[in-house]
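Methods — Computational structure assignment.
A single polypeptide chain was analysed. Its primary sequence is given first, followed by the predicted tertiary structure written as structure tokens.
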Amino acid sequence: MPFTQTPIQDLIIFEPKVFEDERGYFFESYNQKLFEENGIEAKFIQDNQSKSSFGVLRGIHFQKPPFAQAKLVRVLSGKVLDVAVDLRPESATFGKYFGIELSAENKKQLFIPRGFGHGFVVLSDTAEFAYKCDNLYSKEHESGIIYNDADLKIDWQIETSELIISDKDQQLKSFVEFKNSLFSN
């Protein structure tokens, strides 16, 4: 079966069937019917792609409702450690994270439903990262949690001194601040 449930409910690994021969390989990176048959109802409307060098850490990002996004993420070249954080307050795994190595070689993808924060760090010299979203980007609704949050304790598998993080990502709030904002409304 190409779909594997992670320890966090609704966060699903997709491993496409790859057909290889002397010419190279072929696989379906997405098939709406197959995904729906396996309980993934997201209707993707936007594709994004980035290229980054070793140590670049992007995240932990999410968009607030009504512009929350589900994502299907994968790596086109190189490899990354991909991390999803459960930010659904009603979830039994609220505040827990799941990390997986995604690479051009293993061709694994991760389906991240709405209600999760997402980030990745590049483990190879460079990596091209692509993802589908089920909602449009909205600058006014973007948010995030700091990559080195003391409560989340994410192991990025790279020494802190080797990380390359944007100024914007270094200013993101803590998980405690995120929780407080949820329950103060």
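Note: The first strand starts at residue 3 and ends at 5.
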